[in-house]
Amino acid sequence: MLLTIQIVNYNSREYLFSCLDSLRENISPKIKTQIVVVNNDRESLGEKLKNFDVELLERGENIGFGKAHNLGAKIARGEYLFLLNPDTKVFPGTIRSLLDLFSADAKIGIATPLLLGESGLPEEEHFGPKKTPLSTIFSKLSSKRERYFQKEPFEADWVSGAAMMIRKDLFNRLGGFDERYFMYFEDVDLCTRARKKEWKVMVDPRAKVFHKSGQSFSDNRTKKKYYYRSQEYYIRKNFGSFWLWVVKVLRFPFYFWNVYCSR
To answer: Which of 54, 108, 139, 249 is the most exposed place for a label (fewest CB within 10 A)?
Structure first.
């Protein structure tokens, strides 16, 4: 079995090296791996990655999260893809646990480990129930924290692309990520399409990944603009124009504050 690990780098090279070190230290030699790094930075990574066994795709510009992963998948040789953010570190046993989960159930198409923040606690909003027009606005108000502390694998409607393992043939059959999302919601969209084809999306709390989170963009307003743009496309694509306008009206105070007032 070959596993392809894909990492998209943008403004995160200082974290990327730590991520690659964690992979080198914590993946069993029995697991054959191919590591693909897609570099969305203008500055080349070639010289800096010479001590790592990776296949590097240089883009020279930020082409977006989903488009970069789709590009990486074209040279992926693994039976499974493990999509990983550069600002992560993999815990010992994580890869093995996820692969065993897939082996135990042929209907599992996508899985994620728990993402742990700097506090050591699971991050909010890295998996969850179906994203509806209203939940895209108010999801944090109704978060069910108890699910973050379950010990056995469980199903979710979507999981984060920050650390997502997916069957390569499923990724291809779904057409990869929808490239009309530049960043945000492309992972939710991918999981939604997988579940419509009756594939299971799982969270494995036995597997853990540290995630520093939000390192690609230092400008919060820029991040929010990308978020709201992707939110709008997701709602229009899955629920129609009527619900898009409902959300625009209801979220206006949040939008105004985050885009025009926050730092």
So the answer is: 249
Of the candidates 134, 94, 101, the one whose C-alpha atom is nearest the C-alpha of residue 115 is: 94
Q: CA–CA separation, 30 vs 52, rounded Å?
A: 18
Report the predicted TM-score, pTM, of the whole model to 2 decimal places: 0.91
Q: What distance in Å separates the CA atoms of residue 250 and residue 69, rounded to the nearest whole number?
A: 33
CA dihedral 251, 257, 259, 261 (to 10 degrees): 170
Range of the domain at 54: 2-217
pLDDT by residue for the chain (263 residues), tens digit each? 689 999 999 988 889 999 999 999 999 888 999 999 999 999 989 888 888 999 999 998 999 999 999 999 999 999 999 999 999 999 999 999 999 999 999 999 999 999 998 888 888 889 999 999 888 877 655 555 556 678 899 999 999 999 999 999 999 999 999 999 999 999 999 999 999 999 999 999 999 999 987 556 556 777 888 898 999 999 999 999 999 999 888 887 776 677 677 66
The reply to whether 247 falls in a domain is: no
Nearest partner of 59 among 45, 39, 73, 43, judged by Cα: 39
The domain tally of the chain equals 1
Residue 223 lies in a domain: no
Contacts of 16 (CB under 8 A, 6+ apart): 7, 9, 37, 45, 86
| Cβ-based neighbour number of residue 6 at 10 Å | 25
